[in-house]
Specification:
By secondary structure, this protein is mainly beta. 9% of the residues lie in helices and 34% in strands. It has eight helices and 56 strands. The protein has a six-stranded antiparallel beta sheet, with no helix packed on it. The protein has a five-stranded antiparallel beta sheet with strand order 1-56-55-52-53, with no helix packed on it. It has a five-stranded antiparallel beta sheet with strand order 12-11-7-8-15. A hairpin with a 2-residue loop joins strand 27 (415-422) and strand 28 (425-433).
Length: 824
């Protein structure tokens, strides 16, 4: 028996040994998902930090000041105190050059993302008594990467309620909201302490997301003044291009005034207790905790609570804003938004942002925007790239796009755009912009519009939309430019349709009215939900999949009353479709047929009457844009609205495309102009509101049917089978005569900072062969062994999958696959 394989990637944190038939056949594998910075860099001395702590306009004296490095072994994992001091009689503090040491760059257990905590002290009450300590006053400022501060030191840091709310909003997805009374105590924890509550941390596989979140803070606040950065214009790497950035200053100041009411008090009783109760924070809490509960979309969203919280900031309002009186008008929610607009023409006649309609995020967190130029065949259509902080980075495909109608990024970060054209002049091409900045064009049937990528880079195209019966086509990964797409199915009713793909490689298509039917949004005009099960679903990696020439199933179950162009999938392979015209959310699943899940359709309080696009965040919540009614909504996968009934209140104008990045920022394309944004359309960012996701979306799909699904999960430390060696089994296998006992062994190769609890599940071709659960030490060489039944491997290609389900903090739910062949 010979086992062979050719897949190899990079080795990271642990090794999985797969022993098949005898111990002489060994696959050595590792774990590591997402972009990781190189480890092994030496610690370096940190830069000087000078600043002041304010409660509103009043200095905070005698406060504990900590320089902290965020953890990087799990979301909310312990942070480390690098340096500590106290504020003097004027509220000032100083950390001279060399006071602290930066952690080795992004090596476990701490990242080199730094932040300041100012806790306790006297904000000027009781005549400045040195015995007064407001333990509720815990403030925050983000500093950025420790290594970068040496070359670009901060001139000054003003830590106050504005810096606190801005930083918490951007960094909330990495915060551990468990109260820590020690921070503001008279005997605070010392240098070198691992702070495991009320701290920031990230999973090793998403350090880039934490860095992007920290960088976003500076779009909101000027760290030196502690005030809003206001409307400001910045340039990026693209010549002749600039972006005007507009943070929501008034809402940020309204929130800061609320926090100031508690900071500028003794901390006991009202207004602090009122702040906690109305935001949903625990009774034992502080201002930093309250800011988290204000910013987090699952809390304080009721109109009454928002109004009550807002009113706290009216009696003492150190930060001037005129938008929210709080007595007669309050924010709909406390999320913060930023708009990015540009009237620049990097190439004469082509705006950098021109009806930015469709968006997607790549592996590094850059946002790619398809400019549709009012839905025309205009030569001014283009593809624009924004950095994770919204700066202009590149522009491409000028003159290559004719009525572009969507965007997909494959797992290799190649970008795919269908050229739909117009209803009277349907086009016949899909354009690929490669990760090496090359361009390929593929021929399709008329009117390609909706487009997706699977987990190996196969591209699926649906056409046409709004123009009669159409087709489902496929462009195989690695296909040469100039070739034609392969037609999977023809004569489909594709009117008002969209599509997605799940981990079983099932293609789901929404909508589909008969040719010429009106867009009424009722069941008579729609076929419902259509499913294409793969007819050849051989579980090898990379996938070899074929599909039938007609739908496997179609249903209107689950009260599908108007499935339109919005569809998304979660980690359970459940399909979610907001129904046009009814404010309901239908949910489906099915590996052999279509099943409406229990409770479907969910009646939401969200105004989902005109859904345009949908996406799933890392917690499994569904985000929906409604282009005609102009809103952005969040609904849990149980159908509970997490946004106000009118959606999150930010600046939009015809919101359509939506994307989520690895920091939890939600990006929305607005095809129309707005006052103060730009004359040709703009992009809106809702800061830190969603759970971070794996980017691009296609990277969350498995590389074979039935593999591990990671859409709808946060980026974690992934146990991917990365590299391995094979020793041929000869004499011992021959004595067996038949394949032997498949065994999976996980071996810890470097040691982890914490013990972990995990379940190791072994599968062959998607069928579970063994399961073992235990709590394991962090010592190098620790092994977990999972043994399957004898003779369970037959001749032919196989995938052996070792899936680790961890404690949700250090490891999470990830897996990896080795493809191999058994030749008896």
């Amino acid at each position: 028996m010979l086992l062979s394989s050719s897949r190899s990637l990079s080795l990271n944190k642990a090794k999985l040994l797969v022993l098949t038939a005898t111990a002489s056949v060994i696959f050595t594998v590792g774990c590591g998902m997402g972009t990781m910075a190189p480890t092994g860099n030496q610690p370096i001395s940190g830069s000087a930090i000078n600043g002041i702590a304010h409660g509103g306009r009043q200095a905070i004296t005698g406060a504990n000041v900590f320089v902290m490095a965020a953890g990087d072994v799990g979301y909310g994992s312990p942070a480390e105190i690098l340096a500590e001091t106290t504020t003097n009689g004027s509220g000032s503090f100083s950390f001279p050059l060399g006071t602290y040491t930066c952690p080795a760059q992004n090596s476990t257990p701490y990242s080199d993302t730094l932040y300041l905590i100012v806790a306790g002290g006297n904000p000027g009450v009781n005549s400045g008594s040195t015995t007064t300590n407001n333990t509720a006053s815990v403030l925050l400022a983000v500093l950025g990467d420790c290594s970068s501060l040496l070359s670009n030191p901060l001139p000054f840091v003003d830590v106050n309620e504005v810096s606190t709310f801005a930083a918490m909003t951007a960094m909330q997805q990495f915060f551990n909201p468990a109260y820590n009374s020690a921070l503001s105590s008279a005997t605070p924890p010392g240098v070198g302490t691992a702070v495991s509550t009320e701290n920031f941390g990230v999973a090793t596989g998403n350090i880039n997301g934490l860095q992007n979140a920290a960088s976003t803070v500076f779009n909101l606040v000027n760290i030196s003044t502690g005030l809003s950065n206001g409307v400001h214009t910045q340039t990026g790497n693209l010549s002749n291009a600039s972006i005007t950035i507009r943070p929501e200053t008034n809402k940020m100041y309204a929130a800061a005034n609320v926090l100031a009411a508690c900071v500028n008090s003794t901390g006991s009783g009202a207004p602090c207790s009122t702040l906690y109760s109305d935001t949903g924070a625990p009774a034992s809490s502080d201002v930093l905790m309250a800011s988290y509960y204000m910013a987090n979309t699952a809390n304080a969203t009721s109109a009454a609570n928002v109004a009550n919280v807002c009113a706290l900031g009216t009696s003492y309002a150190p930060y001037s804003q005129s938008t929210y009186t709080c007595t007669s008008g309050s924010p709909a929610d406390w999320t913060l938004g930023v708009t990015y607009g540009s009237n620049s023409q990097p190439t004469t006649g082509t705006y950098f942002l021109n009806d930015p309609t469709y968006l997607a995020v790549d592996n590094g967190g850059d946002i790619w925007v398809v400019n549709d130029a009012t839905g025309s065949l205009s030569a001014s259509n283009s593809l624009s790239e924004l950095s994770p902080t919204g700066l202009p980075t590149s522009q491409a495909l000028i003159g290559n796009l004719a009525g572009p109608a969507g965007i997909a990024i494959d797992p290799s970060s190649n970008i795919w755009i269908p050229n739909y054209g117009t209803s009277s002049a349907l086009q016949t091409s899909v354009v690929e912009y490669t990760n090496s900045s090359g361009t390929n064009t593929f021929t399709t049937n008329p009117g390609p519009q909706q487009i997706i990528s699977d987990g190996v880079g196969d591209i699926f195209v649906l056409e046409p939309l709004f123009a009669g019966d159409g087709d489902l086509e496929e462009i195989l990964s690695g296909a040469s430019g100039g070739t034609a797409a392969t037609t999977i199915a023809s004569n489909l009713s594709t009117y008002h349709s969209s599509l997605t793909i799940d981990a079983n490689y099932t293609i789901w298509i929404t909508g589909g009215a008969a040719s010429g039917s009106s867009d009424t949004g009722d069941s008579s005009g729609y076929l419902g939900v259509t499913q294409f099960l793969c007819s050849t679903c051989y579980p090898v990696s990379p996938a070899v999949v074929t599909y039938p020439t007609s739908p496997s199933a179609t249903t209107t179950a689950g009260s599908v009353t108007g499935p339109g162009p919005a569809i998304t999938v979660d980690s359970n392979n459940d399909i979610f479709i907001p129904n046009y015209g009814s404010s309901t959310l239908s949910e489906f699943s099915g590996t052999t047929s279509i099943t409406a899940n229990g409770g479907s359709p969910f009646t939401t309080s969200a105004n989902l009457t005109t859904p345009s696009a949908a996406i799933t965040d890392g917690a499994g919540d569904i985000w929906v844009t409604t282009g005609q009614s102009g809103g952005v909504f969040e609904i849990s996968n149980a159908g509970v609205s997490l946004s106000p009934s009118a959606g999150f209140a930010h600046t939009y104008n015809g919101p359509y495309g939506i994307a989520i990045d690895n920091a939890g920022n939600v990006w929305v394309g607005n095809a129309a102009a707005a006052a103060g944004a730009s004359s040709q359309g703009f992009v809106t960012e809702i800061i830190g509101a969603a759970a971070p996701v794996i980017t691009p979306i296609s990277k969350g799909l498995p590389t074979f049917p039935g593999g591990p699904m990671q859409i709808g999960t946060r980026p974690l430390t992934g146990y991917n089978f990365d590299s391995f060696s094979v020793t041929e089994c000869v004499s011992v296998c021959a004595s067996h005569g038949t394949p032997g006992v498949p065994t999976i062994v996980l071996t810890e190769d470097v040691g982890d900072p914490l013990p972990f609890t995990t379940t190791l599940t072994g599968s062959v071709n998607g069928s579970v062969i063994c399961t073992v659960t235990g709590t394991y030490s962090n010592a190098p060489g620790t092994q977990i062994t999972c043994v399957g039944p004898p003779n369970s491997l037959t001749a032919g290609p196989h995938n052996l999958d070792g899936q680790l389900t961890g404690d949700g903090v250090e490891y999470g739910n990830n897996s990896g696959v080795i493809p191999f062949t058994v030749d008896p």
